[in-house]
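Prompt: I keep going back and forth on a fold encoding question. Comparing notes only helps if you start from a blank page. Show me how you would write down a chain together with its backbone fold. Please set it down just below, with no commentary around it:
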Amino acid sequence: MSNEQRSRDDVSRRGVLRGTAAIAGTAAAGTAGAYRDEIDFRLPATQNDGAGRTLSLLGIVGGWVGVAPAEIDGRSNPPLRLIEGEDHEIVWTNGDGSRHNFTLEDEDGNVIEATDFVEEQGESTSLTVTAEEGMAGYYCVPHPVQMRGPIELIDVDEVHELRVRVEDENGDPLGAEVFVGDHHSFSDVAAKPGQQEEEAPPAVARFDMLEDGEYDVEVWTYGHERLTDTVTIDGDDAAFTATLSATEPGDPAETYSMRLEEGRWVGVGPDAIADEENPTLELEAGETYALEWENAIGQHQPEGENRTYEPLPGHNFVIASAGGTNEWNTYVRSDFLSEQGETQTVEFVATEEMAVYLDQSQLDAVGEIDVQ
């Protein structure tokens, strides 16, 4: 996301968030985020209880995009890990209105099972299969090159579950994003953009099907210190509690003002950025800054050929690092604003890793950050 053009072309929801970890490939990037956030996916209530799994995918011409469980969330053409000998349900949703189907193949390329074709965007179908030796991959018949991924058979006795509880210094549950190795999850459904609930579930991120070994753990949410640690899986399920301390950014050294319009940010103040489109923000590492912004378009979403959109939560302000989609890390992410003319102020401490700012609902509204 300097890289302004790369940010616009290669972005995916998971890449934007990191607050949403690494994308395995970028075949589906660029369009996946917009489709994935607004389709009502059926998500599994549990991920691994020693029985079959429910896996959810989004199908677009650029590639299959993982939805659930957490290990495939946002990944392009992800490996589908199936417990050998168990029945599994694979649910997939048409993300772009093109003609797709889901086909399982063996090691010789022979078809094992296949769903009917689906042509309506947002329509879902499913396939229930018993994971057996010989299963090798999956693909879409009309798009066999772009939409193709591997199948991995897993012995349930060799994998375990890790539960990560997140709390603040007072011991209260805290909605945060949790990374365990290459896997990502939220500690609370309410931490997901647009997923607020009246009664939030316990702040626990669940990771299943982890093999024995040592894993890096990273936990973060805006307004709190990041926590990094390691956890070891050794023959049994495990639990880990992460306590995040609140941060106090201090008085702003500078206040920037911007207005979010369709496809762009427009500078308002100070004079150095006034009326500029996606102006570069000049920051100094270690200093506190305030960003005041106005949502000038309400809940409006960009239109596109062959796309039908339900309203997303609105628009927000995000700061992330540079690099390709599999390298991005999010450092600031504000709440979503849905009302036209609504304003918000975000305070943050500049770090050298910050490189771009954007709106998650309009991925072409991207500007650069220059940190000295």
